[in-house]
Amino acid sequence: MRVAAFSVKPYDRDSLAAASAGLPLEWSWFTPHLTHETARLAEGAAAVNCFVNDRLDAPALEALSGLGVRLVTLRCAGFNHVDLDAAARLSLPVVRVPEYSPHAVAEHTIGLVLTLDRRLHKAYNRVRDGNFSLEGLLGFDLHGRTVGVVGTGRIGRRVAEICLGFGCRVLAHDPTPETDLMARGVAYVPLDELLAGSDIITLHCPLTSGTRHMIDARALALVRRGVMLINTSRGGLVDTRAVIAALKSGTIGHLGLDVYEEEANLFFDDRSDSVIDDDVFTRLLTFPNVVITAHQAFFTRNALDAIAAQTIRNLMHLHRGEPLEAVVRA
Ligand code: NAD
Fold first, then answer.
1. How confident is the model at residue 112 (pLDDT cuts 50, 70, 90)?
2. What pLDDT does 265 receive?
3. Does the CB atom of residue 231 touch ligand 1 within 6 A?
4. What are phi and psi of 22, to 5 degrees?
């Protein structure tokens, strides 16, 4: 069975090829993103395999369906980039990898918190430059601080657990509170209360029409002055222009991002020799209290192996005519 994989990097190819060794899957590897223009590369494929910045909108899905593609497999958990109504209309099932390593993303989130708090990004360069001064590196103890976790699903709950381990007070906001977290001291509160009462706010809910720009000027008017904001979920949760204004005024004291609303044309590629023409993004890079990683929170060996294993399982269900697992519905 032929599978056309898009947005493929060498590490994707290695892990997917290893996980499918000996199985009747014939891969076509493509580096471009899937769009309605590149969809024709999937000609002859029974399934496609996509990542976070492939554009699975109605025209792309229609093109795939017209070519006879019978399954869209995502090698990610998020599916905000898929037009699920169009997929349903075309009877084109979409499957994902719902859980590969929530630990990977949760641990990276904490890495951003510690980097910003203790200015590790500055300390690293200073010491390499023979500058052993501590001026400007003053941090704070996490112990006793209040962390607000927005979304306590697979990833957010692990962030909450790690923060409890640091001795933090944990506030949470989620339409589905977790009773075991509550029993361990996590307090579920309305979003505005979380925003107003947290020293660190970290986002772990999905991007939907209801959560887009949940951190906007209105939300930022409620936060504690100097708050630390972390987003390892999806860029669209944050109104970046409002965040820049809050950084300039000192409302936000630290910002850690692993995702960016317009990341599709930036992240996952080496652009060090080209001019970045996104003025909003380049403005973010000028702040000393901003650390950005390029959607790397998922990127551990454990996660890549788990993504490949579930992707191959999803594809073999189609090949064998078995019921599909991990189907995403509108
Ligand atoms: P999940 O589905 O397990 O949990 C999401 C939680 O958010 C659920 O408990 C849900 O009830 C809650 N939620 C929904 N709407 C909400 C709202 N309005 N306010 C507060 N909470 C709300 O998802 P997950 O696996 O924990 O992933 C969380 C996010 O992390 C997803 O957006 C995913 O795309 C992103 N992610 C990022 C990376 C990365 O590399 N940066 C990797 C994996 C996942």
1. very high
2. 86
3. no
4. 85, -5
Would you say the CB of residue 101 lies under 6 angstroms from ligand 1? Answer: no
Q: What is the mean pLDDT of residues 119-128?
A: 98
pLDDT in tens, 140-160: 999 999 999 999 999 999 999
Instruction: Report the separation in Å between the CA atom of 234 and the middle of ligand 1, taken as the mean of its atom positions.
Output: 9
The pTM (predicted TM-score) of the whole model is 0.94
Q: Are strands 252-257 and 71-74 parallel, antiparallel or unpaired?
A: unpaired
**Residues involved in catalysis:** 234, 263, 295
Quote helix, strand, coil % in the chain, to nearest 5: 40, 15, 45
Q: Is 119 left (phi over 0), alpha (psi -120 to 50) or beta?
A: left
Residue 201 near residue 148 (C-beta atoms within 8 A): yes
CATH 3.40.50.720 domain extents, the chain: 2-100+301-320, 102-292
CATH topology of domain 2-100+301-320: Rossmann fold (3.40.50)
Average pLDDT over residues 246-270: 95
Q: Give the Å distance between the CA of 5 and the centre of ligand 1.
A: 25
What number does the ligand 1 atom closest to the CA of 102 have? 25
Nearest atom in ligand 1 to 208's CA: 15
Residue 204 burial (C-beta neighbours within 10 Å; 0-12, 13-18, 19+): buried
Asked if 217 contacts 242 with a C-beta cutoff of 8 angstroms, the reply is yes
Domain 102-292 sits in which CATH superfamily? NAD(P)-binding Rossmann-like Domain (3.40.50.720)
Amino acid at position 137, single letter = L
